[in-house]
Design a protein that fits this description.
Layout (H helix, E strand, L loop, with lengths): L3 H11 L19 E7 L5 E8 L5 E5 L4 E8 L5 E3 L7 H7 L6 E2 L5 E2 L3 E4 L2 E4 L8 E2 L12 E7 L2 E10 L10 E9 L4 E10 L3 E2 L3 E2 L17 E4 L3 E3 L12 E2 L11 E2 L9 H6 L3 E5 L8 E8 L4 E7 L3 E5 L8 E2 L5 E2 L6 E5 L14 E2 L5 E11 L1
Antiparallel strand pairs: 1-2, 2-3, 3-4, 4-5, 6-16, 7-10, 8-9, 11-12, 12-13, 13-14, 14-29, 15-28, 17-20, 17-22, 18-19, 18-21, 21-24, 22-23, 23-29, 24-27, 25-26
The structure holds alpha-D-galactopyranose.
C-alpha cells in the first residue's frame, strides 16, 4: 500500500514546527539542497553551487570547482548570521587569483621540498610553484579542477559528495587516485568533511580543506584578536622556505605555545626566527593524540561576537596559517578587501614534506588500502 497520501494529509493536519520538526515525532523534515549554476570555467566546463542548510539556519555553499566552500553563515551570540569564510563572488576570481580560498588541496597538501620525493627507489619530480618547493599539489592541483558532485540527504544532515579520479602522472604523482569527499552540514552546526581515496599504484596523499576563517565575519578586519587554542605540545620548525627541518620542537616557552587560549596577535610580532620565516604563523603543529581517533585539534573564539569554532580531526597535524600573504590586493565577496591577516586557516593534515621525512607519520597509500580521514569544524557561541 502506498502510504504517501496519508502521510501528506497528516502533515497538513498537524503542520510542521518552525524548526521543520513534525509536532508528533522527533524526526526533522529534510531541507531541500539547492543546486544552481556558478558559471563556466575558462575552458567552458559548467560549475554548480550547492546550498546546504540545517534546522538552525546555518548555511553552507560549496562549488564543484576545487570542491570549494564559498560561503558559511553561522550565528553569533545574538543569533545574527554572518559569513565566516573568505572567498569571491565570481568563478573567474577563484580560477585566476585565489590563494586557495575554501578549496581542497592535494594530491599533497602543503610543501614538498624541491619538488622531489622517492618511493620504492624511484624519484618523482613535481612542479616547483612556491620558491624552490612544490606547494598544494602543483600547478593544477585539486583546487583547480572540476569535480563531479551530487547532493545527498544523510542521517546526519544534508551533504554534497565530490568525486574524481586523479590520473596516473597528474602533476607528477604516480597512480590513478580515486577520490571521494563528503561535506555534511549537521544540526550540531558542524561542517563535517570525510575524505576517502584509493590507488592502483603506490603513491603519496595528503588532503586538506583550505578555508580562511574570520569569526567576526568575512571582511571584518584582522583576526589578531581571535583567541586560539591548539592541542599540541610540539610543532615542526621550518627553514626559510617553510620546509620542516625534521625536528619536533616543544612549544613550551615559545610564541608557538597555544596549549592555553591566547590571542593570535599576542606574540605574532615577537622577534623569533620561526615567526620571521613564516612572516607570522605558517607552521604545522603535531597534535597531542594517539593514532587516528577523531579528537579536538583546535578551538578558536572571537570575543566580540562570541563565535566559537572547534576543529576535530583524525589527522596527526594542523597547519595554522595566519593569513600572512593577504595584502589588501584581493577584493573578495561583496567587495570586501582582504588585508594582512584578515583570515586564518587551520589545515588538518599530515606534516609537510612527510615523503622526505621518515620520522614523520607516513603519507604513502598503496593499492588495497583506503585513505580515510575526517575533519569537523563545529560552530557554537560563548
Ligand atoms: C598554506 C601555506 C602558506 C600559504 C597558504 C596559501 O597555508 O602554508 O604558506 O601558501 O597556504 O597562501
Amino acid at each position: 500500500m502506498n502510504s504517501k497520501p496519508v502521510r501528506l494529509a497528516l502533515a497538513a493536519m498537524i503542520g510542521w514546527g518552525a524548526s521543520g520538526c513534525c509536532s508528533l515525532c522527533s524526526k526533522k523534515a529534510e531541507i531541500k539542497i539547492m543546486k544552481e549554476s556558478f558559471g563556466k570555467t575558462q575552458d567552458g566546463i559548467a560549475v554548480d553551487c550547492y546550498t546546504l542548510k540545517n534546522h538552525n539556519g546555518v548555511e553552507m555553499k560549496a562549488i564543484n570547482y576545487g570542491a570549494t566552500i564559498i560561503a558559511l553563515k553561522v550565528p553569533d551570540q545574538n543569533g545574527k548570521l554572518d559569513d565566516v569564510v573568505l572567498g569571491f563572488d565570481k568563478l573567474a576570481d577563484y580560477e585566476t587569483k585565489s590563494p586557495y580560498f575554501g578549496c581542497i588541496v592535494g594530491r599533497y597538501g602543503n610543501r614538498i621540498a624541491k619538488g622531489h620525493f622517492s618511493l620504492n627507489g624511484v624519484t618523482y619530480c613535481l612542479a616547483t610553484n612556491n620558491g624552490p618547493n612544490s606547494l598544494h599539489g602543483g600547478l593544477k592541483g585539486f583546487d583547480k579542477v572540476v569535480w563531479q558532485a551530487k547532493e545527498m540527504q544523510t542521517a546526519a544532515g544534508p551533504a554534497v559528495v565530490f568525486t574524481r579520479v586523479s590520473k596516473d602522472g597528474e602533476e607528477g604523482y604516480p597512480g590513478d587516485l580515486t577520490l571521494k569527499l563528503v561535506y555534511t552540514l549537521t544540526d550540531k552546526n558542524e561542517v563535517k568533511i570525510d575524505y576517502t581515496a584509493t590507488t592502483d599504484k603506490d603513491t603519496v596523499v595528503n588532503l586538506t580543506n583550505h578555508s580562511y576563517f574570520n569569526l567576526a565575519g568575512q571582511g571584518h578586519g584582522d583576526i589578531l584578536g581571535h583567541e586560539m587554542q591548539i592541542n599540541a605540545s610540539h610543532f615542526t620548525p621550518v627553514d626559510a622556505t617553510l620546509i620542516p627541518t625534521g625536528e619536533l620542537r616543544p612549544v613550551k616557552g615559545t610564541p608557538f605555545d597555544f596549549t592555553k587560549p591566547i590571542t593570535i596577535g599576542a606574540r605574532i610580532t615577537q622577534s623569533d626566527e620561526q615567526l620571521k620565516f613564516g612572516n607570522g604563523y605558517d607552521h604545522n603543529w603535531a597534535l597531542d593524540k594517539d593514532g587516528d581517533d577523531l579528537c579536538c585539534a583546535a578551538r578558536v573564539v572571537e570575543p566580540q561576537r562570541g563565535r566559537v569554532m572547534e576543529v576535530l580531526t583524525t589527522e596527526p597535524g594542523v597547519q595554522f596559517y595566519s593569513g600572512n600573504f593577504l595584502d589588501g590586493t584581493l577584493a573578495g565577496k561583496a567587495g570586501k578587501v582582504y588585508k594582512f591577516r584578515n583570515g586564518f586557516c587551520l589545515e588538518t593534515q599530515h606534516y609537510p614534506d612527510s615523503p622526505n621525512h621518515p620520522n614523520f607519520p607516513p603519507t604513502i597509500l598503496r593499492p588495497g588500502q583506503t585513505y580515510q580521514t575526517t575533519t569537523i569544524y563545529r560552530f557554537s557561541t560563548k
